[in-house]
Every structure is written in structure tokens, then in C-alpha cells.
Design brief:
The chain is α/β, with parallel strands linked by helices and 318 residues long. It is built from 10 helices and 16 strands. It has helices spanning 41-48, 50-56, 124-129, 131-144, 161-172, 186-191, 222-229, 246-256, 269-280, 297-305; strands spanning 2-6, 16-19, 29-39, 65-66, 70-78, 90-94, 107-111, 115-117, 152-155, 176-181, 196-199, 212-217, 232-240, 259-262, 288-293, 312-316. Helix 10 links the parallel strand 15 and strand 16 (312-316). 48% of the residues are buried.
Length: 318
């Protein structure tokens, strides 16, 4: 099989496309012929940072790291004691998070317990775009945010991978949703169903909104989180995607009477099946804005690395 590896942390130039032996199946695993790979910010963070790589692998860092966690494809082979899947099934999933998913490859070995059958309504590209971002949004909106009908919710970077799923999930729950993005993404965000749109480049968001019940802050910045605390009503909730920022914001949360929750997404076929049901019902839809070929994986990472990606970036394989 072909795969993208790196042997030391750093820039995209450290990624090398190589030919490797296809891993042998263990009990409970399946072999997937990869059709699409979602590219996520964690791919770039793990490639860049030795600390992040060590954290996500529990210190068990192999000599060669294959990046990637999102995959959509077709099962080619099934290991012992696999229930619910067979060769030829179309599947998708978030593989081995936390850990190394090794999905940036033409074949992926995954635990069947982390996979779901691909909804018929999705092509492979859209399916590959979905697992990590949608599971993260689910944890932010439903598991930790506990958003309820009628609550006022502010979602930062509503045009992004996690943000655009979070908007749709919150609206499906009956919340009043405010989304922030730059002016060029206003049409995209409004089409997701937000009740209000804020152009964060025109005026600081904290001057445009106040007394919200929940903020979902996807921005990788302590300073941004502290600004978000200012717009939350007492006894409200702040959900953020950088759990390691908890210590830096706790004092301000306590002063404001706001609860804070850091998201660390985990592989979950159970939740992914619930997401699949919403997709099948047309209640949430992954938005793929750019597609790349397998030979262009470095270019796809560059788009995500820029921090300006809208929706989801996907690499198509085979």
C-alpha cells in the first residue's frame, strides 16, 4: 500500500509518500480500501509538534508516523470475530482517536467497533469529511454543551469544519444560533440556518452579542476564550476545543459564574451511527468545499494549515 509518513516533526516537507506492507488484521479489525480522507487541524498539529504527537499516542511514538484519522472506503477483508460488517461494505469512521489512525494511506486497518456503515445519501468524499468534525461538534453541542431548545448559542468559526456541523446540530435541537465568520463566508453560514450572523472582522464580537447561554469556541486562543466568557450569562456554559487551556481560563470562568468544558474527541461508532441517522434524514449535511487527489495530500494540508478553510477539505483516493 501507499502511505504518507513522517519520521520527525516539522513542516509539510517532512511528509513522504512511501510504499509499505499492508498491516495484518487482528481480531475485531477490518481492512479498508480507502476512498476518501478528511483533513483536520489535528493532522497539522501532530505533524508540527512533538509534544502533541507524544500526548496523542500516550508517549508510544513509532519511528514512522502515518497521519490521518478520518476515512471512508470499502471493506476488503474482515478479521476474526467481526460482527456487522463484511467484505464489500461501504463504511466510514474516526479511527483510533486518541492514538494514531494511520488513514493517510491507500489501505487502512481499523477496529470494526469504530466504524459505521456509510449513509447511502453520502458519496465517499462527503463521508470522508464527516467523522472527526461531526463527532467533535456532537460532543461540544450535545454531550458537554447540553444545548436545549430555545437557548441562545454563539458558535465561533461557524464556517469551519467543526463549526458548520455544530450550527446544524444546535439548530436541530431548536436553539437560537448566532454564527461568527468573516464577511466572505456570510452566505455559507446563513445557508446552514443561523438566526444571526456576525462578521468578526467588522467589529469585536463581544460588542455585538451578550447574554448567551452557551458559547462554542473553536478558536485556538486563550485570549479569544476569555473574550467569549464576557458574553455568557451567569450559569452559562463555555465549550472549547483546547482542553489544555483549562488552567489558563478557570479563574475568569469562576468570576463570571460560567462553567467551562474542554472537548477531546474520541472514536465512537455509537455516536457516529446517531450522526448517520441525522444525515439520512437530511437534518445535517457535510459541506465539502475543496477536494484533492492522493498525490496532492500536502497541498490539502496547506489549505487546512492556513486557518482559512471553509467547510471540509478532503483527499480522494483510488
Amino acid at each position: 500500500m501507499e502511505a504518507y509518513i513522517f519520521e520527525q516533526n516539522g513542516g509539510r516537507e517532512n511528509l513522504k509518500k512511501v510504499t509499505l506492507n499492508t498491516p495484518a488484521l487482528q481480531e475485531g479489525e477490518v481492512l479498508i480500501k480507502t476512498k476518501a480522507i478528511g483533513i483536520n487541524p489535528i493532522d497539522i498539529q501532530v505533524r508540527h509538534s512533538k509534544d502533541m504527537l507524544s500526548m496523542i499516542t500516550g508517549g508510544k511514538v513509532p519511528q514512522q508516523v502515518i497521519l490521518g484519522w478520518d476515512v471512508a472506503g470499502i471493506i476488503e477483508d474482515v478479521g476474526e470475530n467481526v460482527i456487522g460488517f463484511k467484505s464489500g461494505d461501504e463504511v466510514y469512521g474516526l479511527v483510533n482517536m486518541p492514538g494514531l489512525g494511520a488513514t493517510c494511506a491507500t489501505n487502512v486497518v481499523a477496529s470494526a467497533s469504530q466504524l459505521a456503515h456509510k449513509p447511502d445519501i453520502l458519496n465517499f468524499t462527503a463521508a470522508g469529511a464527516t467523522p472527526m468534525a461531526a463527532l467533535t461538534a456532537w460532543q461540544a453541542v450535545i454531550t458537554l454543551g447540553e444545548i436545549k431548545a430555545g437557548e441562545k448559542v454563539l458558535i465561533h468559526a461557524a464556517s469551519g469544519g467543526v463549526g458548520h456541523f455544530a450550527v446544524q446540530l444546535a439548530k436541530n435541537l431548536g436553539a437560537y444560533v448566532i454564527g461568527t465568520a468573516s464577511a466572505k463566508n456570510e452566505f455559507f453560514v446563513r445557508n446552514l440556518g443561523v438566526d444571526e450572523f456576525i462578521d468578526y472582522t467588522a467589529q469585536p464580537f463581544e460588542q455585538q452579542v451578550h447574554d448567551v447561554d452557551v458559547v462554542i469556541d473553536t478558536i485556538n486562543s486563550v485570549e479569544h476564550l476569555l473574550r467569549s466568557v464576557q458574553v455568557i450569562k451567569k450559569n452559562g456554559r463555555l465549550v472549547y476545543l483546547q482542553p489544555h487551556f483549562a488552567g489558563a481560563i478557570q479563574a475568569q470562568l469562576d468570576m463570571a459564574g460560567v462553567s467551562g468544558f474542554g472537548v477531546f474527541v474520541h472514536s465512537s461508532a455509537e455516536v457516529l451511527n446517531e450522526i448517520s441517522a441525522l444525515i439520512a434524514e437530511g437534518k445535517i449535511t457535510p459541506q465539502v468545499t475543496q477536494e484533492f487527489k492522493f498525490d496532492q495530500l500536502r497541498e490539502a494540508q496547506f489549505v487546512v494549515e492556513s486557518g482559512r478553510a471553509t467547510g471540509k477539505i478532503v483527499v480522494n483516493v483510488n
